[in-house]
Each structure stands twice: as structure tokens, then as C-alpha cells.
Write a structure and sequence with these properties.
Elements: E1 2-3, H1 16-23, H2 38-49, H3 61-68, H4 73-85, H5 88-99, E2 105-106, H6 111-118, H7 127-140, H8 145-150, H9 155-174, H10 187-201, E3 205-208, E4 215-217, E5 223-226, H11 231-234, E6 244-251, E7 257-263, H12 266-272, H13 274-280, H14 285-321, H15 329-336
Parallel strand pairs: 5-7
Antiparallel strand pairs: 1-2, 3-4, 3-6, 4-5, 6-7
Length: about 350
């Protein structure tokens, strides 16, 4: 069996912005940025968008915390944001699964058999939640190698994800970041996971331009498609392609695929990164839609008056700070993770 072409993740090494972040504190760094190569300038710009730099170009307080986490910067920022949204337990799993090699494996001419095994673990909220389902099922089966083989999953990759997750948790505890208890399964928790992911990956958002799965990457202006192994294409019945997705990786290939994608709602983008989407984002139909949404939201707020806005803020705060949500979180979790 070989690693599947579908849904691979980056290797355990830091991406270039992470390397730049590790160098920020070195003597002499930043003394000659005018002659720095374009890749370095882009990395610094990305770190600035993530609020990892202060006005002087040094690591900010958030940037210092991000540098403590052995993750690519967007994942580090998402994990820090998870502290605010009470979904640290789930983001630890997502970060570990995205940092480890792909857990999906296939054999020649057996892709459909592999997808049939993965399908019960696919989550309707997207590929990031599917990774949580897979990790949970793996641990519930006592990290059994035979279970992995039967389900076309890499035991080595999943074992590495367990190790990475434990190391990340240890770092979180060492630097005294709050770690919320598990709450996976309730709708509020899924929404908060997406909020945390947007906080780190708002540069990686795509919009379906024609309703048929042709996605325009808002930042890079490429047109791409969901990977064939995405849960949005493999579930039965097959759902409509989501209008807006946050993705982890874009691969330039014959099909230009975005991999590990989850649906996000545009109002979340306006809520979490309005300055980028309304100011720095290149012009596009997607940007115009977001600007129209922002105007309609502002108009609606004015029409409803201050009392309604106060109630909305109270409800929004409860969504952020109540990890359990309505009902019993344990029973919700059992419904969500399919073994």
C-alpha cells in the first residue's frame, strides 16, 4: 500500500514563514530588508497579516507565543485562537493530523474500495472535522494496526499524529495556555472550530464562482477544484459544493486541487478578518460579495437599534465561551464519530 495521492498534508518541517519567525530574534535580522528576496518579503507580509509582528517589525506578543509552537504559522495562530473559542482539544487534533504525513493510503485500482471505507468517517461539516473523526476512531480502536489496514489508513502516520498532539499539548501546558475540554459533536463547537481555523487560515479561502465547484482562490487568484477524495465529493448522497471554503493546501497540477477543505460562512470572514477582506484582498467578485454582505449587516444593525445589537453580542459571546452548548456533549460526540 502507498500513501494516497488525495488529501496529503505538509511534512513535519516548518514552512518558510515559520523559518523566518524562528530567525526574527537573531542579531542583525531585519537590518537589510530592502534587499531581501521576494520570498522573504512575502513570508514577513504573511506574518504581519497573522498579527505575529509589531509596528517595528519585531515579533509581537502573539508572534512570540506562535514561535513556541512547532507548527506552521497559520496552524499556530489557529491553535492560539482556539483558546478564545473553547475548542483547543479539537484544534490540537486537527493540527497534529495536518502536520503528520497523510493518513490516507490506496492500492492500485482500489481507490473506490478505499473511499468506501473512509465514507462512514466523513463529516458533513468538512474535511477538517473528518480528520477529527479519523483520529478519534483510531484511538477508540486502541491504535490498532489491523484496523488501519482494513480501512486504508496509515498506522505510521496516525501514530505520529498521536505523538505530535501530545507534544503540542505539553507545549500549551508549559506556556500556560488554557486547554478546553472536548466538546466535539455539538454545532456550536463545529462553528467555533471553523472560527479558530479562519483566524489562522483567512489567507486560504476560496469562493465557488459558478455553483459547480470551480473555486477562485481569493488571495492568489487561481481557479481550483476540490480534490476527488474530499468529503464533499465522496459522501452519499453527494452534497452541493459549498459556496465558500477554507482550505489547507493548494496544489498546482493538471487539476489544480485544493485539499482539506471545509465550508465557511462569509459572515465569519467579515467577523474575524474584515480589515484583510475589505482592504488588502485583491479585487474580485468574491470581494464584492463580501463588501455587499458587510453593508447589509451594517444596515441591518442600524435598523434594529442598539437593544438588538446588544442581544446579538450576548448570544455571540455565549457561542464563543460555552463549549458544551445545549444538551449533553457526550451524547453529541457519539453521534458525530462513526466507528
Amino acid at each position: 500500500m502507498v500513501p494516497a495521492v488525495g488529501m496529503p498534508h505538509n511534512s513535519c518541517g516548518l514552512e518558510f514563514p515559520g523559518l523566518v519567525m524562528s530567525l526574527m530574534g537573531q542579531p542583525g535580522f531585519g537590518s537589510d530588508l530592502l534587499s531581501a528576496p521576494e520570498a522573504l518579503m512575502q513570508a514577513l507580509e504573511d506574518l504581519d497579516y497573522l498579527a505575529a509582528l509589531d509596528d517595528d517589525g519585531n515579533l509581537s506578543e502573539v508572534g512570540i507565543i506562535m514561535s513556541e509552537l512547532p507548527l506552521e504559522p497559520p496552524l499556530a495562530k489557529a491553535l492560539i485562537a482556539a483558546c478564545e473559542y473553547d475548542c483547543v482539544d479539537e484544534l490540537l487534533t486537527v493540527a497534529a493530523m495536518l502536520t503528520a504525513p497523510s493518513c490516507f493510503v490506496t492500492e492500485a485500482d482500489r481507490e473506490e474500495a478505499a473511499v468506501s471505507c473512509w465514507r462512514p468517517l466523513m463529516h458533513p461539516e468538512g474535511d477538517h472535522m473528518t480528520l477529527i473523526n479519523i483520529y478519534s476512531a483510531f484511538t477508540q480502536h486502541n491504535q490498532d494496526e489491523a484496523w488501519c489496514t482494513t480501512n486504508f489508513l496509515s498506522h505510521t502516520a496516525l501514530r505520529l499524529a498521536v505523538v505530535i498532539r501530545a507534544e503540542l499539548l505539553e507545549v500549551m501546558q508549559r506556556i500556560e495556555l488554557p486547554v478546553s475540554p472536548p466538546a466535539f459533536g455539538c454545532q456550536d463547537n463545529c462553528s467555533n472550530i471553523k472560527r479558530a481555523l479562519i483566524s489562522g487560515f483567512f489567507l486560504k479561502v476560496a469562493h465557488d464562482v459558478d455553483g459547480s465547484g470551480n473555486y477562485l482562490l481569493l488571495t492568489h487568484r487561481h481557479v481550483a477544484h476540490l480534490h476527488p477524495f474530499s468529503s464533499y465529493l465522496c459522501r452519499r448522497p453527494c452534497p452541493r459544493p459549498p459556496s465558500w471554503v477554507l482550505y489547507h493546501e493548494f496544489t498546482v497540477s493538471r487539476d489544480n486541487c485544493i485539499r482539506i477543505a471545509s465550508e465557511v460562512h462569509p459572515h465569519m470572514l467579515m467577523e474575524l478578518a474584515p480589515q484583510y477582506y475589505l482592504g488588502n484582498l485583491p479585487s474580485s467578485d468574491g470581494k464584492e460579495l463580501l463588501m455587499e454582505l458587510r453593508q447589509s449587516l451594517e444596515s441591518g444593525d442600524q435598523d434594529r437599534g442598539p437593544d438588538h445589537r446588544d442581544r446579538d453580542r450576548d448570544q455571540h459571546s455565549r457561542t464563543h465561551r460555552n463549549p458544551d452548548g445545549p444538551g449533553d456533549p457526550q451524547s453529541s460526540n457519539e453521534l458525530c464519530v462513526v466507528q
